Amino acid sequence: MALRLEPADEYMHELGPEPNFNESMYFNAYDPDSRLGGFFRLGNRANEGTGEMTACLYLPDGRVAFMFRRPQVTDNSAFDAAGMRFDVVEPFTELRVSYEGRVVLLDNPLEMADPRAAFTANPHVECAVQLTYSGRSAMFGGEPDQPAERPGEEFARGHYEQLVEAAGTVQVGEETWDIHGFGLRDHSWGPRYWQAPWYYRWLTANFGPGFGFMGSRIARRDSQGIRGGFVWDGEALRLCTDFRISTTWEGDDRYHRALEAELVTDDRTWSVKGRVLRLIPLRNRRRTPEGDDMVTRISEGLTEWTLDDGRVGYGLSEYLDQIIDGQPVGVAE
Predict the structure, then answer these.
(1) pTM
(2) Fewer CB within 10 Å of terminal CB in the chain, N or C?
């Protein structure tokens, strides 16, 4: 299976006929000096007449500033909704992220397990973000020349990722920070339901401009699913032939709090340990054609990574699970 990726793919794609067609971009970053990190996402679901906007900032004092909106989106002409905007300055080289709007301030981000209560009980303040993202790794991914997913299990027809450097300013309430850190961005298009995977684990990490990785484990209900990712050594992407992960869970709700992973390439294996510094659980619900309500939890953990050679880096550990009988389905891994 061959992958196609061209500079034109940095821009918007033709809106497909699928009712659940989604085109989305995502950016994360962490600055170890200011100890501020976060992620931003816009998803256009124009055939449904709506979008998804997420802004999440892990503040230095331990609080999390968060906002989610479902703005009206009726076409796929731009990433520009609910106060957030993404602009491509130069494909694969420079992009800009901006957000102006309100956020809820969470002393305890686990309260977001009940979004209505969390948004009601906590204070809201104004937020402004201006960040420039610069590419630091080669591109990973693209659009395959033949379908890669079974009908009903589509999560993205095309998808690519890149390690990046981020610089700019973040203002939350009366506080402002200058940001200079590192992270990862991605871009996806095609049909998507958050309920398509049974569960997945998506790890992103940066150790400065010259080293980082992404590890991915996607499990299906009735099959082993896939394991993959890459290691960027400053000169080339080393593609993973295997990705192994084990998790330490915490509390009755089973949130991931620590993990160990191995990224296996053709010529070596990298071992890494992750310590979740802060975690916010997000939720998505969908009623299936059979009339069943499916609840999906996406736990977003700001994570400190330690490689087996002692280097320390930062990034996100994103755990998606379908919730059955109140428990995430992927706790065995």
Answers:
(1) 0.96
(2) N
